[in-house]
Amino acid sequence: MTPRTISYDDVASRFSWCDAVAALRDGHTRPQAQIGDIFLGPADGTLLSRGAYVPGLGYGLKSVTVFDKNAKAGLPTVQGAMLVFEPEHGQLVAIIDSKLVTEIKTAADSVLGATLLARPDSQTLLIVGAGTVARSLIKAYSAVMPSLRQIGIWSRRSAQSEALAQEFASEDLDVFAAPDLATAVAKADIVSTATMARDPILKADWVKEGTHVDLIGAFKADMREADDRLIATGSLFVDSRATTIDHIGELKIPIANGVITADAVKGDLYDLVKAPNSGRQNEQEITLFKNGGGAHLDMMIATFIVDQI
Q1: Comparing C-alpha atoms, which of 161, 164, 198, 205 is closest to residue 183?
Q2: To 10 degrees, what angle do helices 17-27 and 295-308 make?
Q3: Reported pTM
Q4: Right CATH number for 107-293 from 1.10.540.10, 3.40.50.720, 3.40.50.150, 3.40.50.800?
Q5: In the chain, where does the domain assigned CATH 3.30.1780.10 lie?
Q6: Which of 234, 248, 239 has the alpha carbon at shortest distance from 288?
Q7: What is d(CA 37, CA 62) in angstroms, rounded to the nearest whole number?
Q8: Which one of 108, 217, 247, 264 is most buried, counting C-beta atoms within 10 A?
């Protein structure tokens, strides 16, 4: 078998966000995945390899280098590829640009969480951050959640949020740059944070009853986006217990400080997909979803990508 090589441009404009979210949902109806991570090299030049076995789907390994200073050389900070092996004989079936897998996985992960936890009548989404992830979130949320009527974008650099909003000016959906974060949060039914914040940027005092909070940005042990009170008072869910509780500052720091315990996490995507009634319990509840990623999610999306070619 000759493995297929799949580039970013092969698929980036040819897939359905609804189908991508459905692939993640289907993946979580399968038995629990086996996952493992390896980190090699110094902090500013790391090789990260994430492996997974998903019963019925196969085996996957995503390896990327993360070089913090690459931007100064005009190069991407993260570069790599994902290997996909079929389950019956372990044959290599595809080599996929890691950027493609990560981009689809990250947004689909959050939107699946929102379909399971947000109020079905949610009309206003606020995205905090205006980078690549924010662009994918606009596309994914608007495709999968037809109740949305407005999408606000806030970033520290207002010009960046205004430029991203302008990209969607010709769409039917109202996408706008939000000038004030606290005011925009107070009006939103869903708040999705995709920043590089190391200290909380989202305060509980701003969040109204019934809001769904989608926390994406923090991916290291010293990073977080929500303040202690929001973490302590909201109904807390994660995409994967194995990749969040002991690894990401969003949960690890409040647990270490005694703000919450690990038992505060009410469920992950395996729980929510298999028992949807275990999620939101009423219209007033504030739900929090920590998007931490994981090799099993990469594998679910990688097999979806292979099926698109």
Answers
A1: 205
A2: 130
A3: 0.95
A4: 3.40.50.720
A5: 4-102+296-308
A6: 234
A7: 10
A8: 108
